[in-house]
Amino acid sequence: MTLCDAGGNWLESVVVPANTGERAGALLLFAKVKEAWWSGKLTLIWADEGFGGREFEEQVQQQFGWTLEIGTKELGQKGFCVQRKRWLIEQVFGCWGRYRRLTRDYEQSPDCSRATLQIATLHRWIKRLRPAPNADPPFRYRNL
To answer: Residue 103 contacts by C-beta under 8 Å, 6 or more apart in sequence?
Structure first.
C-alpha cells in the first residue's frame, strides 16, 4: 500500500502480506501516516474503486479525519480511459518498475522491501535535481 501526493511524489508505504485485503492494508497505511509530522496538512485522499463503499469512507473520516474520494468510471464508459487522478500513483509504480530490486520479491522482511522503495524514490528525486546529460541533439525537422 502506497500514498503519494498530488505531484506523484511518494509519501509513505506499508508492505503487507499478499492475503491482506485492500481496505485492511489501507487502514494500516493510514494509521502509519497519522503518526507523521506532515499528516496534519492531509485533508483529502483519492482512491480507486477497490476502496469504495460508504462504510469505509465513513470509517476513514471518523478514525483519521480525512475525506476519502473514490475515482469512478464515467457512466457508459467502455474500454480503457484515463481516470481522474489515478495516473499519479501509477506514475510512482511505473518509476519503481525500472528498479531491478523491485521487479521481483527478493527481500526477506517487509522492512527491507520498504527501504528499497525509499531508495528508489530518493534516486528518482536526485535525478530530477540533476538530470543526466543527453548526448542526442534535440529533434528538428529538415528544411525542404
So the answer is: 97
According to the model, what pLDDT value does residue 136 have?
Answer: 66
Which residues of 31-81 form beta strands (DSSP E)?
44-47, 67-70
pLDDT by residue (tens digit) across 36-92?
999 999 999 988 888 888 999 999 999 999 999 887 777 787 777 777 677 777 777
Which CATH class for the 2-73+82-129 domain?
alpha beta
Asked if residues 10 and 4 have their Cβ atoms less than 8 Å apart, the reply is yes
pTM of the model: 0.76
- CA 45 to chain centroid, in Å, comes to 11
Which pairs from 81-88 meet CB under 8 Å and 24+ separation?
A: 83/48, 84/46, 85/6, 85/46, 86/46, 86/48, 87/8, 88/4, 88/5, 88/6, 88/7, 88/8, 88/46
**Planar angle of CA 113, 10, 116, nearest 5 degrees:** 20
- Tell me how long the chain is: 144
Which pLDDT value is given to residue 137?
64
